[in-house]
Each structure stands twice: as structure tokens, then as C-alpha cells.
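BUG: 3D viewer hangs when loading the predicted structure for this chain

Environment: internal workstation, default settings.
Expected: structure renders.
Actual: progress bar stalls at 90%.

Input used:
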Amino acid sequence: MPTYEKMPDPDSLLKVEIEARERLYQGFIALDRYRLRHQRFNGEWVGPMVREVVVRRPAVGVLPYDPNADQVLLIEQFRLPARIAGNPAWQLEIVAGIQEGDEAPEVVARRETLEEAGCELTALVPMCRFLTSPGLTTEYTSLFLGRIDSTKVGSFGGLAQEHEDIRLTLFPASEASNLVHHPRAENAALVAALLWFELHRERIRQEWLGSR
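C-alpha cells produced before the viewer hung:
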């Protein structure tokens, strides 16, 4: 099997031709319809075909963590698409929000943690960045681990003007990997953050506690 470093980049070898683009809807999200064709791996052409794309600004997610108490903070809030898909409507999540304009992801991370959880971040560590659903939307998500003081965490958060009703719950960090199997832990950002945290928890905790 080829190693990752030796895998060819199809974007540098294969062509994509956009024949038409139409804006179908513009609101909190935008929906575009494309008519296109692209080359196959063997050089032949696929299409023309029609695809709809949900256009979204970048998202930022934060897993708040208190190294002193060795606890992570998760939130719960109502998600209509989850209910429509037949899953629990109240989803277990990490703090998250959308970048506005030219905002840096770190700025969004601090703002959303304050708005949704009422906590100030005293440190940020980048986790990873991924396309949320590359077959559906342009949105990508940047994840961070954020340092908090869990003694200042209340029971509820969110902004009323944004129709947010958020419950806050602290979990022992040692149980973080088990939370991946929670029936309401079904979103990619939460799963990715918890798995990253499991791999890096001890290193980050030692660094943060050593910096006191």
C-alpha cells in the first residue's frame, strides 16, 4: 500500500469544468446549483451532472478543559435536523460557532465559549481542521482545546436573542473517550474533539499545570 506522502494529488492531475452556477436560496445559509463535469482517474470524463451545494462560512469548535479539576465541559442544546433524521433532538456537543467576516478562528473560540458557557478561555491549543460534509457543504470546522476554570461554570448558558437554551455539564476527563459512545454524541466535531483529547490529554495537562 502507498504511504500517505506518496499518494498523488488528483487536483494537480485531473480537470473540473463548471458549466453553470445558479443561486437557489440565500438566507442564514446559501444553496447553489452547479452543472459540471470532471475527469475520471483514468482520464475519461464524468458528466455533465447537476449538484446542489450548501454554502456556509467556516465553523469553530472548542472543547473546554480545566486541567486543575481534570474535567471537560460539554453542552446540550436542541437541534431540529437531528430530530428530523430520527435521532435525539437534544444533542451533546462542544462549544461551537460560525466565523463572521474576517474573524480569526481563535477570536470565535473565545467569543463562543463566553456566550454559550459563560467562561473565559485562558489558553487555546489547535486540534484539527476538517470539512464538515464535503459532499454537501463548503463549511469546514477548526477545533481547539480551550483552558477554563471549572469553578466558574454554571448550569445553563446561551444567548436568548439567538434562541439558545444550553445546558452545561462537567465530565471527568478520564471518561472523555467513553462519551463517544453516548447516544446523543453523534456529531463529528464532538467525536473528533474527544478522540484528539484522549490522545493528547496527559501532555496538555502537564504543559498547562507546569505553566501556572
